[in-house]
């Protein structure tokens, strides 16, 4: 177990989000903001992770309920970042080593950067190490004031800064590493006599320097890593950067992405090489896509697996399903949860599958609803076929065995079974099993009345 502990600030109001939901639970690329931060923190193998909650504390805890091993420190009321960190003290009593402080709303920080911050901090034996960045527009951030030796002397908040200080373009990222030994006693010296009447955590820098303790900085190469989310506009900006980073990785690994700006790929999505993504594709959750697949425009795939060489034509939605090698889906198909499309099978336009298995080489090319159905290999499902799986209170299964042929516009009233190689005549309402090799025909017999039209006219 390491002696590095992590604390994450998540108690603030997030006023500018204009949201009833806690800011840190707003999703970016499909995951709550704070989840991105927790994943980065995890890479340090920390001895403990404490989330400081306050505003909408219960909602934040509920949102993180699935995450094991977190400690929550309650900050009530919220009197500033210094006061927030002080709430961690009871949870770390007796602990020594390094405390890394992160913000729940700063989700782009890379694990390598965090590692570098901790290394710099531990090697220099500093009381505190501040992650800083030079930015073209420092407005709103705390500024890094350096002394004649270029050492950090203080951090001054925008609202307390002189005009000269406002011109400093090196900013405080709000991410720090602290030596735990002096930390909490020093924090008790922070005062709230400033423009916002808050207990500023960055005041620690001045306090440490005044008593001759060492304070270090690590200057970031890419300031975008410490972009914070304070508004929905910034949420969109951060999400776009996250998405673009993932897309760049995928392109580098051999995936063709025709239009990165309109392609949205979640952080947990995996894609094989030679696969082509057309514009306007959304890949979400735990989706895995094999090699040499083609995903056409307007497709959304959630928590699904596509094997190599699968093709999804335009405007399909695929959820919690499996599309096997070489299968083709769409355009305009809806593949609902727990469906399996077999190797080289074909699901055409306006076909909906729900909890349905389609065997190898089978086809449902047009206008069908197939629900709770188990369909064998090399079956042909004619246009307009419908499984009547619901009787108003319960769902029932349809089984269609290998090689069967279902004529167009048939209804299969479940529970029902169509045997191997059997035929169902077009337009049938099948309510009883069709034995293997048989023809099932269930429709009104056609009567032709010769001369009927002329007869009708004569009567008029
Ligand atoms: C803070 C820093 C500033 C830095 C900037 C980087 C202070 C005083 N200033 O400013 O130097 O450049 O971050 O983004 O620290 N929070 C609490 N409890 C509180 C107040 C805040 O948990 O009582 C949390 C917020 O939810 C947020 C974080 O602390 O996650 C930062 O607070 P915020 O008010 O956004 O500080 P900034 O004004 O951005
Ligand atoms: Ca902020």
Explain what you see:
By secondary structure, the protein is of the alpha/beta class. It has a 16-stranded parallel beta sheet that branches. A hairpin with a 5-residue loop joins strand 8 (143-146) and strand 9. The radius of gyration is 31 Å and the shape is elongated. The model has no long low-confidence stretch (mean pLDDT 97). Bound molecules: uridine-diphosphate-N-acetylglucosamine and calcium ion.
Question: How would you summarize this macromolecular structure in one to three sentences?
Answer:
This protein has 460 residues and is of the alpha/beta class. The strands form 6 sheets. The chain has a 16-stranded parallel beta sheet that branches. A 9-stranded parallel beta sheet has the order 14-17-20-23-26-28-30-33-36, with no helix packed on it. The chain has a 7-stranded mixed beta sheet with strand order 5-4-1-6-10-7-11.
Task: Please tag this protein with its features.
460 residues; alpha/beta; 16-stranded parallel beta sheet; 9-stranded parallel beta sheet; 30% strand; binds uridine-diphosphate-N-acetylglucosamine; binds calcium ion
